Amino acid sequence: MATKIKGTKVTATKNQVKGVIYLTDKTKTNFSIDKYGQWEQWGNNTENLCLSVGYVERLANEFTNIS
Predict the structure, then answer these.
(1) pTM of the model
(2) Alpha carbon of residue 66 to chain centroid
(3) For tag attachment on the chain, is the N or C end more exposed, with fewer CB atoms within 10 Å?
(4) Vertex 28: Cα angle to 43 and 34 (nearest 5)
């Protein structure tokens, strides 16, 4: 069975968005996005980090469009 995003926890302030993405394989990926839309992920293997790139990029676009 393919690993998928199961849930997220996101915290936003004026200057940063940060959070955790929970996956169906019971692992989690941490991420942060700065006020310029630059983002990073950590805390998981490369394959699982790739799963959440689209989600983090959409969040970064939303955050920078409303900031």
Answers:
(1) 0.91
(2) 18
(3) N
(4) 65
Report residue 1's pLDDT band, with 50, 70 and 90 as the boundaries. Answer: confident
Token pair 């970064």 in the structure block, residue: 60
Q: Report the C-alpha gap between 30 and 51 in whole angstroms.
A: 12
Query: What stretch of H or E contains 40?
Result: strand 39-42
Which structure tokens are listed for 39? Answer: 């983002």
Separation between Cα atoms, residue 29 and residue 49, nearest integer Å: 7
Q: What's the pLDDT at 53? A: 97
- Cβ neighbours around 16 below 10 Å, total: 12
Tokens of 30: 């941490």
Which pLDDT does position 66 carry in this prediction? 65
Tally of CB atoms within 10 A around 60: 18
